[in-house]
Amino acid sequence: MGSQPEMDAKALMEAACRVMSDDSMETLARRSFSPKKIDIFNHAYSVLESREQYQFIKDTEAERLLPGIINNPVQQVISADTLSEEAQTEFNKQRNIGVVFSGGPAPGGHNVIAGLFDELKKYNADSRLFGFLQGPDGLLESRYIEITRDLVKKYRNMGGFTMIKTGRTKIDSGEKMEKALVTCKHLGLDALVIIGGDDSNTNAAFLAQHFKSSGIKVIGIPKTIDGDIQVKTDDGQTLCAISFGFHSAARAFARNIANLANDGSSDVKYWHVCKVMGRVASHLTLESALQTRVNLALIGEELADYIDEERLEKAKNNGGMDYNAFGITLRHLSRVICDIIVRRAAFGKNYGVMIIPEGILEFINEIQVFIIKLNKIIADYNAIHDLDFHRAFPGLNGKLDYLRRVSQGMIDKGKFPIWNLRDDELFNQLPNFFKEGLLVERDFHGNFQFSQVKTEKIVMDMVKEYLDVLKEQGVYKVGIKRTDYTSFMEAARMDPELYAPALFKNPHDEYVLVKPEIISLKTLKQALVNSDMLDTDDELPEALVAIFRKSEPVFKTQTHFYGYDGRGSDPTNFDCNYTYNLGLTAFHLIAGKATGQMAAILNLEQDFEQWQPIGIPIARLMHLEERKGKLELVIEKSIVDLNSNAFRVFKTMREDWVAADTGTDRFRNPGPVHFFSDTEEDRPLMLKLNSLESGEK
Ligand code: FBP
Question: For ligand 1, what atom is nearest to the CA of residue 224?
């Protein structure tokens, strides 16, 4: 190194630029990749056909609030090689379309824009696409850019929503809708495309209703890594199997988790605790678990159904009923986790990988009650005060004081207090960081912000506490391989067979466990004295001390949060194709004069050749739900279906994945995300499993 002549700074930078181009090879390759097009889009034109076989119950509130779009049918985009002259002119007309991202990023968003742009320009080169900046705020404040061919080129097949950015503002008042309408009219828009999650598609429906008389169409696109937009008809036919971004985020999480599993089972000292995004639903956890086969994955939806059989039995024997046996508590949950840790440790595996969904609290009774009550108290406060709750009481103590005052005030007025003394008592038993988490500011849509709460910390603190108890009881021990014990003793010139019965509760097994009563050097000596292996005055042989130390578990964890990283990852091949076709579908729905529809792809769970572009009536997906303390009309979120194939397969296989046995771990490595290659599954495993028919090979 020293002998190399030093380059001057300019020459070095010039040379460095040649070595490190601004865009990586991956970026360049992604930009030039062409997603597949559903065949219908290779034809000259399209028409929309109603599909009456797909039916949904109408919510009466949706009927009242969305009369202009409630009777929309499911529409299928059908190819048409010729149209009447008048229809052709209409199809080919110059259009202005606006597009906006809403909510958290999801891989593939740029391809929706690319598909929309390509199709718009294909039919009329003078058509224009406008992108509203930073989400719905751009629409309200008339901040936008015109999306050009060069811009689209830069972002094709790329992750993030960086082209026009996103935001979470909700267009939730007549005034805001009017502002949005003014912006759209000012730009002479024919249509607005809203790329968002369940709440943003709810917004799209209300805007479609509000814009109806102006003639401006509104189309929604099912976006969210959470995978909680899944549409089924009343008789269970799947219209939209998953929102876009889910596959890429799950694959990104799975890739990282598999890497952890690799590290963790090499340097065998940590339990890796992975919190995975997804809001309330555990779809991302389920898919990541199927991809990686980690030792333990908690599915929130399943915990809600938990029944403490032991408790129930006890009550039954006493001739009563214990309603507290239904639903899981944090205590129970920590016991379930400890059981797996202890069982693995018995086979020498005092390490592992577990996944906890970020929304798990929603399914834990005692915590859910707090979330609901606090939602209502905060919403009520905000409805009557100028300064909102979080600004009025920035510190934890101020918030807690207010809760007590609410309770007292209601009692004084002779009302049943929403926050009672028992709540106060239970809430105060929680650690401060967790109390703060539960009081965290709700988002624009009134949703509890699970990503802001250290769920994994509260759960793992309880796990650690209980493991200490189990250690004291001699239940939590690290199993020692019998052959290792034998060689160790022989090396120390001691007879392994002589000592084994005194030391181990299962001296002849492949993994031996130090007896439960031996929990210290003192009790070890006692056990040896009792078995006449040692005299009271003898020193403990070093080899036996070493064996005992090996059996003592040290529980060490590393926690990881997988969320924003996966949300910002580049799309998989599946999402590249899916989103590009969603963009194309959105254009064809607009050309067919649809409004209040969500663009979707039918048969997403099947091979690409089966994919069909459709429009789903958003108003028909709505129901009343508690938000910000009152009932609001929103799209129903889909959570993990415990009867689905994917969950049933997981449930059957998971005991094997615990690997509490003499075998090796069953970890599976899904590899990195690809946009072209045949080394990646072509769609989420959940979709593949859910589409399996009985008898299918
Ligand atoms: P969307 O529902 O908007 O797609 O967002 C998904 C999500 O990533 C959730 O998984 C997560 O709980 C939340 O956004 C985090 O929100 P924020 O970006 O406000 O921290």
Answer: 4
Q: Is the CB of 288 under 6 A from ligand 1?
A: no
Closest by CA position to 111, among listed 45, 41, 161, 40: 161
Residues 90, 205, single domain; the answer is yes
Q: Counting beta carbons within 10 angstroms of the beta carbon of residue 691, is it exposed (0 to 12), middle (13 to 18) or buried (19 or more)? A: middle
Query: How far, in Å, from the CA of 225 to the mean position of ligand 1?
Result: 8
The pLDDT tens digits of the residues spanning 668-685 come to: 999 988 888 778 888 999
Kindly state the tokens that stand for 12: 């070095």
Q: Which of 168, 246, 442, 567 to mutate to test the pocket of ligand 1 (most atoms within 8 A of CB)?
A: 567
Q: How confident is the model at residue 272 (pLDDT cuts 50, 70, 90)?
A: very high
Candidate from 112, 226, 639 with most ligand 1 atoms within 8 A of CB, to mutate = 226
Give the residue-averaged pLDDT of 549-567.
Answer: 97
Return the residue whose CA atom lies nearest to atom 10 of ligand 1.
278
* Range of the structural domain that residue 212 is part of: 24-244+571-621
pLDDT for position 54:
96
Q: What's the CA-to-centroid distance between 564 and ligand 1, angstroms?
A: 8
Question: Quick one: 204 and 97 in the same domain?
Answer: yes
For the CA of 200, the nearest atom of ligand 1: 3
C-alpha 104 to ligand 1 mean position (Å): 5
Ligand 1: which atom is nearest the Cα of residue 279?
12
Regarding whether 224 and 309 lie in a shared domain, the answer is: no
Q: Do 384 and 330 sit in the same domain of this protein?
A: no
Q: Does the CB atom of residue 197 touch ligand 1 within 6 A?
A: yes
pLDDT given at position 697: 42
d(C-alpha 103, C-alpha 106), whole Å: 9
Instruction: State how far the Cα of 34 lies from the Cα of 446, in Å rounded to an integer.
Output: 39
pLDDT at 694: 60
Q: Say whether both 80 and 197 belong to one domain.
A: yes
Q: What is the pTM of this model?
A: 0.93
The predicted-structure confidence for 398-453, as pLDDT tens digits, reads as follows 988 898 888 777 666 767 778 888 888 888 888 888 888 888 888 877 778 888 88
630 part of a folded domain? no
In single-letter form, the type of residue at position 370 comes to F
Does the Cβ of 198 fall within 6 Å of ligand 1? Answer: no
pLDDT attached to residue 3:
63
72 lines ligand 1 (CB under 6 A): no
Predicted confidence (pLDDT) at residue 508 exceeds the cutoff of 60 = yes
Q: Is the dihedral of CA 464, 469, 472, 477 positive or negative?
A: negative
277 lines ligand 1 (CB under 6 A): yes
**Same domain, yes or no, for 563 and 616?**
no
What ranges in 537-684 are assigned the alpha helix state H?
542-551, 564-567, 573-591, 645-658
Question: Which of 9-13, 448-452, 642-646 is least confident?
Answer: 448-452
Query: Quick one: what percent of the chain has pLDDT higher than 90?
Result: 76
**Rounded Cα–Cα distance for residues 112 and 222 (Å):** 11
Asked if residue 6 belongs to a domain, the reply is: no
Distance 231 CA to ligand 1 centre (A): 20
The CATH number covering residue 218 comes to: 3.40.50.450
How many folded domains does the chain comprise?
Answer: 4
Q: Is residue 694 part of a domain?
A: yes
359-387 burial string, b = 16+ CB within 10 Å, else e? bbbbbbbbbeebbebbbbbbbbbbeeeee
